[in-house]
Amino acid sequence: MPITPNQFKRGSKIEVDGEPYAVIEWQHIKCGRGGATVRTKIKNLISGRVLERTYDSGEKLKEPDFEEKRMQYLYNDGTEYIFMDQESYEQVHLDDDCVGDAYLFMPESLDVAVQFFNGRPIGITLPNFVELEVTECEPGVKGDTVTGGSKGATVITGGKIQVPLFINEGDVLKIDTRDASYIERVSSKK
User: CB of 155 within 8 A of CB of 173?
Assistant: First the structure.
């Protein structure tokens, strides 16, 4: 079913030159006597490239054959990341290009959304928040709970984040995967 630029909202999916894109920004523009146009920024869901395009407001655009499946991350075999569909138990193998930097905050057994375009896996989306154990950081200092300072820490999956000074190795943290930021300490080893 075609979609028109008047129906755009953030995240709308369209197909351009045979590839899937997501709408990042859009702006309706009405010029004097002419028809309205929609100026957009769209992101290629395969390559990550961002384009700026202008469409007539009534133009019909193709929606991509795009599907998203909930899958469980099983393991990395050294060259590929293995995911399993929890309904059919079918396994999907994704390479580094599809996973990108998501592996930095992707522990085994995590449920993720795997995107498919024309039946081919093209990428993943992590849940907004994950809980991971700190494996490396400078020792915490008692009393440094409100000073506002921060230090670097490494979590069990290899991701590096900035954390408050009171965080210690072994603490479990809630992390926002969208920007790799510390949210809160979930549990402490002490």
Answer: yes
